[in-house]
Amino acid sequence: MSDLAGFELPISDSFGQTVLHVPRERLAEIVMELRDEFGFNMCIDVTAVDYLDYEAPRNLPEGVDPERFEIVVSLLSMLERTRLRLRVQVPEHDAAVPSLFDVHPGTEALEREVFDMFGIRFEEHPDLTRILMPEDWIGYPLRKDYAIGRIPVQFKGIENAR
Amino acid sequence: MPINFDQGLEGLDNNFLTGTLESIVKWARQKSMFPATFGLACCAIEMMATGGPHYDLARYGMEVFRASPRQADLMIVAGRVSQKMAPVLRQIYDQMMEPKWVISMGVCASSGGMFNNYAIVQGVDQVVPVDVYAPGCPPGPETLMHAILTLYGLIERGEITRRRAESGAGARVFVDQRDGQTLEISGRRP
Amino acid sequence: MNVDLDNDTSEGAQELQPRKGMKAEELLRELGCVLRMSEADAADLGARDPGDDETMIINMGPQHPSTHGVLRLMLELDGEIVLRTKPIIGYLHTGMEKTGEDLTFLQGPTNVTRMDYASPLFNELVFSMATEKLLGIEEEIPPRAQWIRMLMTEMNRIASHVLFLATNGMDIGAIGMMLYGWREREEVLRFFEKVTGLRMNHNYIRPGGVAADLPDGWRDDVLQVLDPLPERLDEFDLLMTGQPIWRERLQGVGLITAREAIALGATGPILRSTGVPWDLRREMPYLYYDQLEFDVVVGTYGDTFDRYAIRLNEIRESIRIVHQILDKVPSGDYRIQDKKVTPPPRARIDESMEALIHHFKIFTEGFKVPEGEVYVAIESPRGELGCYLASDGRAKPYRMHVRGPSFVNLQTLPHMMRGGFLADGVAVISSVDPIMGEVDR
Of A52, C34, C51, C405, which sits 20 to 30 A from C101 (CA to CA)? Predict the structure, then answer.
């Protein structure tokens, strides 16, 4: 995608898929420009990854500082039939990202899920509350330092035949 | 022959005069049980399939799934119960009238199933007393019907209703999985 | 604790201001159709006594005969007319994404398959495709495996759409449709039981191919399933499509425009009902869909009738596809012959020590997947189903995220229900066809 070079942002390729690395202050404006000028009219997915336990080297291009959290935004251009992925590094001590609600209203529920599961705040989101867990739940389940909550099970022998 | 109306049928002394009455009431309770709709996940689809034409539940008098728990006497917990849903489950159970029974359908309802994590209640018997546990993921219609017929057998014997009236405990009977029996029957349906 | 709705909540006054002069963003945020109130505040509202000209906030669900699964709706009503809605989900949250990080890639499909439980093979397919892309073996999957995958998923699409017809019919009131729908579904489930061993949640499509080959005589079994379907679909047309009551209840109800649908991220029959012919099988083909001939069914008005008609006709298109697949399935392997990925056949375990070790390693530790991240999407009966996998070289996914179409499609619900009656709300929910397993995951 040569025309994306106009953004002057690091671009990498992941198994044939183009990935744009965006600094978090510029996320909303870049997504808006991608929607208006480049035709990426649908935001497919907003999700996050917690790289606390990542055992391999981070493999980020030059100029991108790795942080603990990463927001991954998938965009789709229906006219060109192409996908684009944006990766935004989010530091742990200040886990906040501008919300994409004004650009793509369909990200409302997706961002609420990221907030619920990771604790990353989205600024200017209209209703940032928990969506999957009960509203008074403490903790962010998908973070790597949150245990899975497994209960040890003791399998007792069953006497009667099947 | 003192009749204690507060305890209902269980308050009657068992003698030859009340024996027929008891058996009539038990027969009526079995043959017209109304299940409450509590389908949560995949097991709900199999529960609906049991009510469908192939594995007809209507022949056991159970086709009518009452939406209002006040009118139901059997709760089939079909599916995984999450932390957010557990209070709702208890509320629905409390709204049902005595006598009531609970079938825990599927492994997720019986023990948490394959989801041993923070989000799923590990066994619905932590929330309501269960009478019959039906295994399977999901249990096919044949297993569910086996569980229902086991429950009928328990009601016939009477002890389950008596115990529930006294202490609110369930019968905790485990049945085995009986799926795949109709696979060999082929050919066109009429 | 009294909640002063005029001053305490972000909505300001409950009366709706005129919409002229407001930008689209302001409309969506403040007024619009989505009721943004926390559950705690809404629970306190019950203590208040509503006056005559105030709107009423009622709660529908999570246990209700008409909600598809455990969906809870908070509705703001003005008499019988629905103004704003807030869908509350999370009653089936299973922590599947967290569990996915704890299971190996071979066990992954057992977890993912229970997300969209009406069409489980699609979840398995998208997870397997994402894993194969990370492994780099997506070009080497044998053609027979890919054709078998297409056959099974298209049969599953038929089963899922028939389930929609059954539940939609019952919600509108044609209760007999429920029985007819389950009759058709049983035939397909019987075929699945013969091939995969299970009626639902099959764990059949695995990374590397499929779990087992099709049994002998499968062509006759498929034809036996498909042959009675066209005339039965015509019967459903007679029962529902042409009927005046059906049309009155569904036409003009639950309208959504193409711009709204695209802005909200809706895909699948909802987007196609607005006139946008977006189907991933045609636009961004995967497996061998580019070798098949089928039409993409598109609606005009974006109402619930269009969505019903689209799904009914998609069953016909799937039947057409399966007939073409029947002739095209080649012979060959049903899974890739890479010793590191697929377990060896059971007979070989007795003979070869190496086969035993491979079997042991694959089933206990799992095969290691090289590091990277990938997003793969397919067209499920509900829309675009995507899987985002990130791996760090170990045998378990580092992060597994499934983009469930119903989760995003549910955002269109407030926009569709606005201005309609409460009774139409049931029809609208049914036409969105959400499966709460993939909404809550």
Answer: C405
C178–B80: do the CB atoms touch at under 8 Å? Answer: no
For range C200-220, the mean pLDDT: 89
- Rounded to 5 degrees, φ, ψ at C76 are -100, 115
- Residue C35 counted as domain residue: no
* 8 Å CB contact of A141 and B116: no
CB of B122 within 8 Å of a chain A CB? The answer is yes
Q: In A, which residues are within 8 Å of B112 by CB distance?
A: 151
Kindly list the domain boundaries of chain A, sorted by start residue: 2-52+63-108
In contact, C296 and C272? CB cutoff 8 Å: yes
Mutate which of C123, C199, C221 to disrupt the B interface (most B C-beta within 10 Å)? Answer: C199
Q: Does B178 touch chain A (CB under 8 A)?
A: no
Q: Hey, what amino acid is at C364?
A: T
Reduce the secondary structure of B27-78 to three states and give it as a string: HHHHHCCCEECCECCHHHHHHHHHCCCCCCCHHHCCCCCECCHHHCCEEEEE
Q: Do B118 and C94 touch (CB under 8 A)?
A: no
Domains of chain B: 31-174 (3.40.50.12280)
Strand intervals (E) in C207-329:
209-210
Backbone dihedral region of A27: left (phi > 0), alpha (psi from -120 to 50 degrees) or beta?
A: alpha
- Residue B167, phi then psi, degrees to nearest 5: -120, -5
Tens digits of residue pLDDT in A110-144: 999 999 999 999 988 888 888 898 888 888 999 99
Amino acid letter, residue C78: D
pLDDT in tens, chain A (162 residues): 457 777 788 888 888 888 989 888 889 889 998 888 888 889 999 999 998 888 888 878 887 888 889 999 999 998 888 899 999 999 988 888 999 988 898 898 999 999 999 999 998 888 888 889 888 888 899 999 888 888 877 766 555 433
Q: pLDDT tens digits for C107-166?
A: 999 999 999 999 999 999 999 999 999 988 888 889 999 999 999 999 999 999 999 999
Strand extents, DSSP E, C139-221: 205-206, 209-210
Which whole-number Å values give the CA distances from C219 to C127, C155, C163, C191, C297, in the listed order? Answer: 27, 13, 24, 11, 27
Option in B48, B88, B188 nearest C63 (CB) = B88
Chain A's closest residue to B120, CA to CA, is A149
A2-52+63-108: CATH homologous superfamily?
A: NADH:ubiquinone oxidoreductase Nqo5 subunit (3.30.460.80)
pTM of the entire structure? Answer: 0.88
Residue C165 lies in a domain: yes
Chain B residue whose CA is closest to C437 = B41
Cβ-defined contact of B117 to A148 (cutoff 8 Å): yes
Asked if C270 and C255 touch (Cβ cutoff 8 Å), the reply is no
User: Which of chain C's residues have a Cβ under 8 Å away from the Cβ of B67?
Assistant: 64-65
